[in-house]
Amino acid sequence: MATTSDLSFSDVSPMLIEQAEEYLVSFLQEQFPSRDFSVGRVTRELVVNMAAIMHAINREDIDRLLKSFSPLVIAADPTAADPDIVDAVYANYGVERYDGNVATGSLAIIISDLITTSVPDTTIFTANGLTYGISQTYIGVTSADAVVSAAERLIEERPDGTYVFTVPVTASAVGEAYRATRGTRFTASPAIPGSIDIEAAADFEGGTDSETNAELVERVQQGIAPRVFSGRAQVASLFQEQYPQLVNMSQVGLGDPEMLRDRDNIFQMSTGGKADLYVQTADTPEEVVVVKECTYLGSQEWQTTIGRDDAPGFYLVRAVVQHNQTAFEGSLEVLDETRGLDLTLETDWVHAVDGLVQGAYSRYQTAVVKFKDPQTPLTVVVGDKEDYDVYVLRLPGVKTLHDLTIDRSRRPQTGDYLVRAAVPALAYVSLEIRYRSGTTAPDVDAVKQAIASRINALGFKIGRLPMALIVDAAQGALETGGTYTFTPLNLYAEIYPPDTAPDGKITVIDVNELVVPYLPERGVTQRTTVFYLPMSAINVIVKPMATLAI
Amino acid sequence: MSPSIDYTGRTVDVLIFQGVVASGKQPIETGFGEAGYVCTGIQKVAQTWLALFMTDRGSVLNKPTRGSSFFPAIRRGRIQVENDVPAEFSLAAEHVRQTMELDASQADPALPDDERLDSAVLLEFNLFRELAYLQLKIQIKSLAGDERVVYLPVPTAIR
């Protein structure tokens, strides 16, 4: 048993020390009436005051223990519990906190001239107030022959006459906030000679937050349920164990209007035995690059297929660019995207899925993408193959969870459980923050983080994106001395129903609240749909406000 | 000078200046003492004043106004010539006086007059440059009129 405290003076509030001092004086004065405990006396300042500090630290330690010593008290107020003690308590039940991980990604260093450029390993890259580092010195080199290890990065020419090379970077800390999206602008310190811009070459991967006490408590409570395909609590427990980063899930089944798969009979009556498991496996979807072999169709048109293994359960094809074109701007024109399903057997059994409305955003989804490349050389003939980079928006982990449902040893004998990524409602928010002229301007990045964190945690809970929650989150990140969020806000979201993905999107706009429409026959209701609000989709305008002197 | 005082029933403070005698010059040391000596009356005033005077202002946890600026002034080189000594002393002593006055006003029960500071006056000082120390001769007087003179040696790097 440790006999020392890991508290420091700064962990103990001055008020607590003052209270401890008054308590000790009162207590000691009663015991030793002849002692002078007045303020300023040596007894008070050198003896009692020191004892009060230690008393306060002990008190704080005991309070922490009292708030954290059992699952019951932790569950009563998870925010007050000490994370280290919570970890120790739950270790007794074989449960460990999910520590989160750091985001990694690739930065495009855009330079004006084709010259060898060094990026020292001491370089710190910053975006949105967050810092990233590199593990070694990288050198941008001008010819492929000079690339002899991972440290040499080939400089390529961009269409606009500038040059670019990439370096891999790692976030300085764990957390979702570090997951930069493609195109995010970075700065470097020290500056990289000759660089004119630095931006994320693709969406960063990883970058998950450590599990909070509240999340751990919720997981433990789910963990009490057997981890099997059975009732909702049991399935949630199973999925949480299999994929700890799971943020939210919603299960529709017998009797739910959203359950269409169990009505595939001539009477269109629910027969049970099927469930759709909608999952949100990350705060927001991420963009991944899929290198696809494309076939030339003629007239500068190309075609490829996003297979079911390329980005299982993907949401959108965001862009198509020539292979290895780093930090591109825009995309080649996508002429057509047709979704389909690939129900080829993987094990001894496959889910019963009829049409996109039942199978979109599942692991079975595919897409045929047709696009136009105006720079297609004249020498290319119909049927020729060429690699292109396809940028796809998707949630991670869909296949991991899907595999549970087809594994003969784990899947239920009597049921058909289909995993689907939550129907996406991609939200955009614009707000104005006003602060008193002459005071410090608010930290826009902190506001964005607070809002994104609040909204992306909503999951399937309310099916709404209320202005009040955004304002509340923003205010929490602002100083209280008169800085405020000006209302109403501009709220906007695009919902992509499964039956018409990706073209038939539903747009919702409002100043007070966005609401998921109730369209169960199209697979869109609160039970299936999640609002995603990445930081990059939050526009914060900061305006100083003139005030009169008082 | 007040007549002799009956200290019966007075509250006492821990004595941190060991070796004090009733009269005459006597070297003293700081410490709690093996026997746990206590003091009252003017001695309490003197040691309270000295403790505050020798404490760097801002160094006490959660009590940023306690202490004085005299020792920090020496360390930061604000005392370079003899004329600087009385100026820095006055500044520091005034702050100590205000602190003790505030403490006394909040004391419950009220402090007797011979345990309250009236004044602390720098009677004399000597700067021994070669020996790197400054000697202060300070007269501490209570509201009741008791006086004590304290010689305070202060290590210094003034050359």
Low-confidence stretches of chain A: none
Q: What's the count of strands of chain A?
A: 27
Strand content of chain A is 25-35%
CATH architecture of chain B: Roll
Q: Cα-atom Rg of chain B, whole angstroms?
A: 16 Å
CATH topology of chain B: Nuclear Transport Factor 2, Chain: A
Strand % of chain B is 15-25%
Order of helices and strands of chain B: EEEEHHHEEE
Main structural class of chain B: alpha+beta
Major sheet characteristics of chain B: 3 strands, antiparallel
Q: Helical proportion of chain B?
A: 25-40%
Oligomeric description of these chains: heterodimer
Separate helix tally of chain A? 10
Give the overall silhouette of chain A: globular
Low-confidence region ranges of chain B = none
Number of helical regions of chain B: 3
Q: Tell me the helix content of chain A.
A: 10-25%
- Strand order in the sheet with the most strands of chain B: 5-6-7
Number of domains of chain B: 1
Query: What is the mean pLDDT of chain B?
Result: 88
Mean pLDDT over the residues of chain A: 90
Structural write-up:
The complex is a heterodimer of chains A (550) and B (159). The radius of gyration of chain A is 28 Å and the shape is globular. In chain A, strands 1, 3, 4, 7, 8, 9, 10 and 11 form an eight-stranded antiparallel beta sheet that branches. In chain A, strands 16-19-14-15-18-17 form a six-stranded antiparallel beta sheet, with no helix packed on it. In chain A, strands 21, 23, 24, 26 and 27 form a five-stranded mixed beta sheet that branches. Chain A is α+β, with helices and mostly antiparallel strands. Chain A has ten helices and 27 strands. Chain A has helices at 14-31, 42-66, 71-76, 83-91, 213-223, 232-242, 356-359, 398-406, 444-456, 467-476; strands spanning 101-111, 117-119, 124-127, 130-133, 138-141, 152-154, 156-157, 163-174, 187-189, 195-200, 205-208, 248-252, 274-280, 286-298, 301-306, 316-322, 333-341, 365-372, 385-394, 416-421, 423-436, 464-466, 484-495, 506-510, 513-515, 529-532, 538-545. Chain B is an alpha+beta fold and 159 residues long. Chain B has one domain (13-155): Roll (Nuclear Transport Factor 2, Chain: A). In chain B, the strands form three sheets. A three-stranded antiparallel beta sheet of chain B has the order 5-6-7. A two-stranded antiparallel ribbon of chain B has the order 1-4. A two-stranded antiparallel ribbon of chain B has the order 2-3. The longest helix of chain B has 23 residues, at 84-106. The radius of gyration of chain B is 16 Å and the shape is globular. The interface between A and B is medium-sized, with 20 and 26 residues.
